[in-house]
Amino acid sequence: MKKNKLSKVSLLVVTLCSLLMTSCIKDEPLNMECDILSAWVEGDEYAPNFYQTAQMRIENIASNEKEIVFSVRSLISLSKQIPVNFTLTPGATISPANGSVQDFTNGPVTYTVTSEDGAWKREYKVVFHEASLPSDKFSFENVEIVESSSSSYHGFYEIDQNGTRHNIWATGNPGAAIIAAYKAQPETFPTYSDENGYKGKCVCMNTQSTGQLGEMMKKPIAAGNLFLGKFNVNSVVLQPLKATEFGIPMDREPVRVTGYYKYQPGPEFTNVKKQIVPGRVDEASIYAVFFRNTDENGKSVVLYGDDVMTSPLILKIAQVESLPATNEWTRFEMFFKGSDADEEILASQGYSLTLVFSSSKNGDNFEGSVGSTLYVDEVEVLFDNGEE
In what order do the strands lie in the sheet with 101-102? Predict the structure, then answer.
């Protein structure tokens, strides 16, 4: 009799647990995320539009990204019927339909992603443009206001001779926006546009304190920076050195880089623990790296903050050895040193180039002087084919 009573109690407990679990499953809120995680073009018939099959797929798309760019050989010969496939956050839907055929020859196609709960939407522009550096000269005249949830900051882009926009420049501003404790304006961010350039506008980069939140995250300073590549906010908190994704594909071999700068270091150099290092003076950094952009398996490669100067895929590096403090616009010049490019690899855009400017040389390790300020303008890349 006792055993039977215990069995009934056990059965009742199991039943109640089952009901509770079912209730939890039913009441679980629907996903509010509406992001594109990856995008790709599939099919051998589309491969001839690209220099490499690796360019047919774009992975690890940042949550702050609004534009997805596929680089192709030519817009003139581009097919007018190309299906783009997407990986979305769980439960999200997309319009136009995932994998549907679209015409990208007349400009961007806008896709709208709707969250599983239907309450949130995000728009992305998917662009196909010719894979080439839009210009050899950069005057930093093209600037826009980028709005984040808490702040607004400056973004830099280029316009080619056909009027096509190229978002080839990135900064750490999206990361700084995450820890901004107030409604910050563009001129209060580490990197912003300044009206007093060598000619017209220029880029101003300054090293800033990240405040209490930054100290808690063991990232006490944020150096101003500008580079060819992308900034991925998905990595900012846990892997900050992976947030900077360096490089854009190239079909020409760079020889040297010239430009103009002004620089003043901040008064006190601090380490990652925000301890003052007596006698140490902050330094600015200007360098360029030319590297293989696919690995042995044909997978796309970018360099990050932790290997941009050390990766075995690097072919050559150019670096300004010294940037003395100056309040006057001063010309800099740096030459690439390393191995010569393979012509076949170069022709298939198998190399990438990045240019990097920073107000604190060791800013990637969160060391430097708050107040260090670097201005850069009229940068030019010269190639071995004689074009300027």
Answer: 57-58, 36-41, 82-88, 101-102
CB within 8 Å of 71: residues ≥ 6 apart: 50, 51, 55, 128, 129, 130, 131, 249, 349
H and E: helices and strands count for the chain: 4, 30
3: CB partners within 8 A, 6+ apart: none
- DSSP states of 283-295: --EEEEEEEE-B-
Dist. CA 332–CA 284, nearest whole Å: 12
Q: d(Cα 68, Cα 353) in Å, to the nearest integer?
A: 19
Name which of 290, 251, 43, 40 is nearest 131 in CA terms. Answer: 251
324, 374 contact by CB (below 8 A): no
Distance CA 8, CA 360 (A): 72
More confident: 27 or 309: 309
In Å, how far from its chain's centre is CA 4? 66
Give the residue carrying structure tokens 């978002």: 167
Ranking 51-55, 148-152, 187-191, 192-196 by mean pLDDT, the lowest is 148-152
361 in Cβ contact with 205 (< 8 Å): no
Residue-wise pLDDT tens digits, 265-309: 999 999 999 999 999 999 999 999 999 999 888 888 999 999 999
Band of pLDDT at residue 259, cut at 50, 70 and 90: very high
Question: Any idea of the CA torsion for 214, 369, 363, 381, to the nearest 10 degrees?
Answer: 140
